[in-house]
Structures are given as C-alpha cells and as structure tokens.
Amino acid sequence: MINELPKEIATILQSTKKDPVQFEEMIRPGGYLPPEMDLMVDAISALSMGKNILLKGPTGAGKTKFAETLSHLFNQPMFSVNCSVDLDAESLLGFKTLSYKEEKQVIEFVPGPVINSMNYGHFLYIDEINMAKPETLPLINGVLDYRRTITNPFTNEVITAKAGFNVIAAINEGYVGTVPLNEALKNRFVVIEVPYIEGEQLKQLIETNTKLKDSKNIGLFVKLSGDLINAVNQGKVAEDAASIRALLDACDLSVLVPPKRAILRSIVDKLDEEREREFVKNLADTLF
C-alpha cells in the first residue's frame, strides 16, 4: 500500500537535501521541526511506502507534534489511541450499545479509532504504546502488517484498511508502568529516534509556538533547556525536567508572571525528588 504525498510536498521532499530551508518553511508555523531534517525525510519516506513508524524518545521531545505534522503533510486526518494498563479491545476497536431504529430497540456497533481509521483510510496514532498490557496489542497484529486487515470480534466482520491508512506509534522507554515491546510487535515498525530539540531550532519553536516575544528571555530559556538536557544525560535529573512541552508552558507563563515562578509551576513542581527540584531552581536562579 502506497500513501501518496501531495505533489508539492513530494517535489520538496526530493529536493530537501539541496534546499532544506524550503522544506522547513512548509512545516511552519506550529509544526514539528526536527533537530535533523533526515528524521522528517525518513519518516515521510517510510509512510509513503505504507510502513508503520515508531517514534522513540524522551517525554516532551515532540513525538506527538511530530505525528501531527506528518498527518498535516499527508493531508490525512488522524485518529488517536492513548494507551494505558486499562486499554482493551473496546478502546481499540469499538463497542456495542443499544439504540433505536424505526422505534425499535437494536444493538448497534460504535467503531473505535482502529476501525474508523481503517474504514476512512486515515492515519492512526498510538501514543505510549508500551503502556498497554502485552496481551492487548496482538489484537491488531494483522492491522500492522502487510495484510492491513482485522476480523472485528464484536461483529465478525472482516475489515480491510482503505488506501491512505497507516500507523504512527510513540514510545517512552523506562517509565513506571511501561513494558518492553515484544519482537513480533516491534518488527512491524520502522523506528525513528526523536531527540530533544536544542539551540536555534528550539529558539524558533519558542518564537512560533508560545506568546513569549522577548528575545533576551527566549535566549535564557534556550540556555536553561540545554543545561537541563545535559543534566539528564549526566543522570542528575529525570527526563521530565528537560521536557520541551514543559519548557514551552514556562515560556508562555513568563509573559504574565516572573520567569522563575513560571519555571517553578511548569517544571520544578512536577519533579518527585527534592534534590532534582533544588537543582532546577538553582539553574533558574543563575539564569534569571
């Protein structure tokens, strides 16, 4: 199954290495700008060949925004599944309910995100896929491989995905409640490693995605992010501390409250360890 890109994007994709700036302009405003344009090119290439992609990286690195940007570039609406230990067949596929038709009570099947995305030929986004119980996801193995089909256990209907359907999943490894993906599931994906956004690209992200316009403070928030990422890499703080999502919240809040208080509310107070909270507060005191 080949998912065709709009012609103008396909043309730009072919010339990305020659003119990456032109491609970046297509993604803006508000879209995901990867640290390396190869990440976007590889993801688009895989999806256009009908392959599923697994976005792998730390929390707050922009995986959901990456998926939304891909959906936008393909002009494909996207159904979403948020995985948890409570995820079951009904959450994925749909459920039966009582309704009325011509004044008679009937049992009706209400399709879930997997069935809807297959029937409409849209994208399916499975967030935090490794939060689901290992026995749940094999229900959609046939959806994720070359067959692109499923037998709906609630109706016994065999459903084959329409052209355009594809799957993007995201994974945060090493968190409480997560489980390793089994090999059968992992082998159904092309893996795209999503690192933190840093430097000039983070500056652009703050400028386009937050209400903060003060160039000095934007520079200080970029420096804070870089220091937090280094601290994560050195094992001084948890990955949550370097979440880009949390940083953008802090940037927004800093328009109305002092930056250090914005950092306290958006980043510090989310951390569990007092040692980590003090570390981030000290960084904020130094910069702001």
TrEMBL record:
Record-linked Gene3D superfamilies: P-loop containing nucleotide triphosphate hydrolases
Source superkingdom: Bacteria
Provenance organism: Peribacillus muralis
Descriptive protein name: AAA+ ATPase domain-containing protein
PANTHER family in UniProt: MAGNESIUM-CHELATASE SUBUNIT CHLD, MOXR FAMILY PROTEIN
InterPro entries: AAA+_ATPase, ATPase_dyneun-rel_AAA, CbbQ/NirQ/NorQ/GpvN, P-loop_NTPase
Listed GO MF terms: ATP binding; ATP hydrolysis activity
Pfam families found in the cross-reference section: AAA_5
CDD domains linked to this entry: AAA
AAA+ ATPase domain sequence ranges: 49-198
